[in-house]
Amino acid sequence: MVDHTRARSFGTIAADYDRFRPGYPAEALRWALAGTGDDAHVVDLGAGTGLLTRDLRALGHRVTPVEPDPAMRARLDTAVPGTTALAGCAEAVPLPDASADAVLVGQAYHWFDRERAHVEIARVLQPDGIFAPIWNIRDETVGWVAELGRIAQMGESISDLTVKVTTFGAAFGPVELGRFTHRTTVTSDEVLGLMRTRSHWLVAAPQQRQRMDREVRELFATHPDLAGRATVELSYQTLVFRARRR
After folding, report:
1. Residue 185, pLDDT score
2. Distance separating alpha carbons of residues 234 and 191, to the nearest angstrom
3. Which helix (H) or strand (E) holds 93?
């Protein structure tokens, strides 16, 4: 069941979302799009502020971002010159049949009505086209990162996704999984900013927000791997679930 309140919470913090959320490693995107050619038409579905759009364009692809939230679209249009995001959603993509070589989804597939979305994504893909949801998941084998996840309730885990994402319906072939390492260098303030872009924080009551803020500050002040350091590496596993249109 999609939590629509959480799903619609991001537009109020579009600028911070764009600033604090990480992009995607090039090797993960190349794997996702293997066989499509260097100038593929890629739909960035649930594009948000265009983090994935930028990374795909940097690889030379033609990208059509589709995003339901007007504030997120406005930020994308500002942040990605020469691109205009289309108003639409996974269940109603404003593109013709068989018009895309690939549909990629960065950090948004869990908000979709999956049965309806799979049919619509298959409609806009060419035969043998690629559908690939992608997530940056914090590497919670690192002790302080696991503690951060506990404090901030930061969404899906690697084990959650590998259990839940197993098929995209009858129109698609088997789902393949690619894993890639991704690291960003961050300050404590940037980690706090990142947490404040998560849906759990955005929909929380004021006292819950204050508790999470306080516990993140305490983590950076007291954890032996963090205390006294100006910056630290925040490690991610980037997971790509890829299947081809039959």
Report:
1. 97
2. 9
3. none
